[in-house]
Amino acid sequence: MKTYFVYILKCADDSFYTGITNDLERRLYEHNVGFNKDSYTFKRRPVELVWYEMFTEPTQAIMIEKKIKGWSRRKKQALIDEDWDKLVRYSKNYTEYGKDDSSTSL
Q1: Could you tell me the pTM of the whole model?
Q2: Quick one: how many helices (H) and strands (E) in the chain?
Q3: Could you give the residue range(s) of every CATH 3.40.1440.10 domain in the chain?
Q4: Computed from CA positions of residues 61, 67, 69, 73, in that sequence, does the dihedral angle turn out positive or negative?
Q5: What residues contact 54, with CB distance under 8 A and at least 6 apart?
């Protein structure tokens, strides 16, 4: 059975990169050696793997990767930290709950 990984890297500039691969070890190596000079991570090395999830269905992995790519930084950080309360809070509508991370009334 083939496996697919959706992953988040933390880059040297403190940004996050979200990707998908069928070989996580190889892909992390490629990011760190600068395999592709046109890639987002090339000028942001070294990178560190901070989160990943394994899937057996490629369509599900692609769907999750696209979803995470659309998330805010704070929502990605909540996922990495496994802070489910914050993840739910950051999933709420901004117009109703605001963008401010210091919002503690929820």
Answers
A1: 0.86
A2: 5, 3
A3: 4-70
A4: negative
A5: 3, 4, 5
Q: Measured between alpha carbons, how far is 84 from 88 in angstroms, rounded to an integer?
A: 6
Q: What is the CATH number of domain 4-70?
A: 3.40.1440.10
Task: Determine phi and psi for 67, rounding to 5 degrees.
Answer: -65, -50
Question: Could you state, in chain order, the average pLDDT of each consecutive group of 10 residues for the chain (106 residues)?
Answer: 97 98 97 94 98 98 97 96 94 65 47
Element at 68 (helix H, strand E): helix 58-69
Calpha distance 27→20 (Å, rounded) = 9
Dist CA 15 CA 103 (whole Å): 23
